[in-house]
Every structure is written in structure tokens, then in C-alpha cells.
TrEMBL record:
Function recorded in the entry: Responsible for synthesis of pseudouridine from uracil.
Organism phylogeny: Bacteria, Bacillati, Bacillota, Bacilli, Lactobacillales
Residue ranges crossing the lipid bilayer per the database entry: none
Organism name: Lactococcus termiticola
Gene expressing this chain: rluD_2
InterPro entries hit by this protein: PsdUridine_synth_cat_dom_sf, PsdUridine_synth_RluA-like_CS, PsdUridine_synth_RluC/D, PsdUridine_synth_RsuA/RluA, RluA_PseudoU_synthase
Protein name: Pseudouridine synthase
């Protein structure tokens, strides 16, 4: 696999080694392989890693498939891949509800398959959305940028904003929930709030209240499995249509409406929004029920 990156103005003049280790923070193993296999060139020339590079220079990276194997994916349906943003390094898609982020077993199809078929080569999972959740989701297009995006996620620099419709009303218009989440020993499909779990922090803001329900905005500092669903359920306000923690309806009323993060190579902050027809329809249906009761 060959990858080209033009150094942007956000990178000051520095050595190749500094670029890879400090600016891009590539994993040690990846840097070692690039050095040993002479897998890096600058403007078409193989240079010593002490050589300086600057904005405008073109870095060419060669990754051997035996060192960085591509995910094996069955051909998907390109028409099911709704791309919101794409460049040569990463891609953001709009996942519909009732579709998995990635296949979990041979023969299974998911958004990852459909995206790969649409763009003509495999994509790499950066984070996940529950099958029942719709919205913006980020994938890497090559192994070089994958650890950079993973690091942004670990450092809390990939911000995800969700909309959800819940039962009842939160105790405060704006509130932060900091409750650890772990596995439910009695149900392997569920998670619950537990002191022995992993740190989980969610920020909630009530946008609208009607018919004993609330439209709520959610921002996550962490990305635990079922985090929003578990935090809201723990307060007695499960998400409308949650088949696991409440009662199933047409769909789980949880939608990832925006994702924002700094591009690893340019430093530009990308703000990408996603819409959902079925979420909007579910919201309007609940509003109509309120209006009918009020009339």
C-alpha cells in the first residue's frame, strides 16, 4: 500500500524522525518497520531520518501487506453507504439504525462492507455505534492514519454529539453524569452502572419537554458500550424504543447527529453533521400524540 501526505502549514520545519515520532506520534513498531524497510521517501527521494522536512514537502509511505494486512470483507452494497465526508485518508458515514458497524462473524454484512464496496478498498473501524443507533461514524482509509485517529479518540479529541428522546424529565436542564459502566453478570448483552466498571462521563442538555418525554442532547467524554443508554436508564429515564433497557418501538430514539475532530495531517477541525429521517419521524410522531391529547 502506498500513501502520500503533503505536509501542511501546521507542521514546522523538523526532521523526518521528529515528524513521525512527535508530530504524527506513529507507534514505535510502525516507525521501526518504515526505517528497516526503507518505506519512506520525501519528494520521491529516500533520505536519512535526520533530514529536515517542511510545509509543502510530499511524504511517500509504503506499507507491506504482510505487515499491515487489510481486513477481509465480503462485498457489500454500495447503495447502503451514505458518505458524509471523504478525503484520501479518512471517511465519515451516516449509519442507519438496524445496521452493524462491522461484521462480527463470517458471512455477516455491515456498514464496513458497504463502505469498502463503495470506495473500492477496505476501511478500518475507529469507533462503533450500537446496531440500533444511527448517525455519524468515522473510519480510517489506511493503516497509517488508524493509530492517529485511535489516539485522538483516547485523548477525548473526537467529539460526538447525540440526540435522544427519553422517558420523563431529567432532574436538571443541564447535567453531567460520571458513573462507571461495566458488564451485567446476569445478561451478557447488557451493561450497567457499577463501581468496578470503566470510567464513563456523559453530558446531557434538555432541549424540549412534552408529553412526559424529553428531547435531550448528549455529549460524550468517553465511549463505553451502551454508555448513553445505561446512564439514562440508571436515572430512571430510558430512551424511547430501547429494546434492551426499556420497550421496543419502531426504532431506538438515539442518533449521532454530529462528529468533530482535528484532522491528523492538517490540524483542521472537521465538523460533520448527519440527519436521520426515521429519527425525525419518530420525534414528530411523539409531538403529534401530544398535540392530539392537548386538542
Amino acid at each position: 500500500m502506498k500513501i502520500e501526505i503533503q505536509i501542511q502549514d501546521n507542521i514546522s520545519e523538523q526532521s523526518i524522525e521528529e515528524l513521525l515520532m512527535t508530530s504524527w506520534q506513529l507507534p514505535k513498531k510502525m516507525r521501526h518497520l518504515l526505517r528497516m524497510q526503507k518505506g519512506l521517501a520525501v519528494n520521491g527521494e529516500s533520505l536519512a531520518w535526520s533530514s529536515k522536512v517542511k510545509a509543502g514537502d510530499c511524504i511517500q509511505i509504503s506499507l507491506r501487506p504482510e505487515d499491515f494486512p487489510e481486513p477481509e470483507l465480503l462485498p457489500g452494497n454500495p447503495e447502503l453507504a451514505d458518505i458524509l465526508y471523504e478525503d484520501e485518508h479518512l471517511i465519515v458515514a451516516n449509519k442507519p439504525e438496524a445496521m452493524k458497524t462491522h461484521p462480527n462473524s463470517p458471512g455477516e454484512f455491515a456498514l464496513q462492507n458497504h463502505l469498502a464496496s463503495k470506495i473500492g478498498h477496505p476501511v478500518y473501524v475507529v469507533h462503533r455505534l450500537d446496531t440500533e443507533t444511527s448517525g455519524a461514524i468515522l473510519f480510517a482509509k489506511h493503516p497509517l492514519i488508524l493509530p492517529m485517529l485511535n489516539r485522538l479518540l483516547e485523548e477525548g479529541k473526537i467529539h460526538r454529539n447525540y440526540l435522544t428522546l427519553i422517558e420523563g424529565q431529567l432532574p436538571m436542564p443541564e447535567m453531567t453524569v460520571n458513573k462507571a459502566i461495566g458488564r451485567d453478570r446476569h445478561d451478557r448483552h447488557k451493561r450497567l452502572v457499577t463501581k468496578s466498571g470503566q470510567t464513563a462521563i456523559s453530558h446531557f442538555k434538555t432541549l424540549e419537554i412534552f408529553n412526559k418525554k424529553s428531547l435531550v442532547s448528549c455529549l460524550l467524554d468517553t465511549g463505553r458500550t451502551h454508555q448513553i443508554r445505561v446512564h439514562l436508564t440508571s436515572m430512571g429515564h430510558p430512551i424511547i424504543g430501547d429494546p434492551l433497557y426499556s420497550k421496543a418501538k419502531d426504532r431506538l430514539m438515539l442518533h449521532a447527529r454530529q462528529i468533530s475532530f482535528p484532522h491528523p495531517f492538517t490540524g483542521q477541525v472537521l465538523n460533520i453533521s448527519a440527519s436521520s429521517k426515521t429519527f425525525d419521524e419518530g420525534y414528530q410522531k411523539e409531538k403529534q400524540d401530544k398535540n392530539q391529547r392537548d386538542s
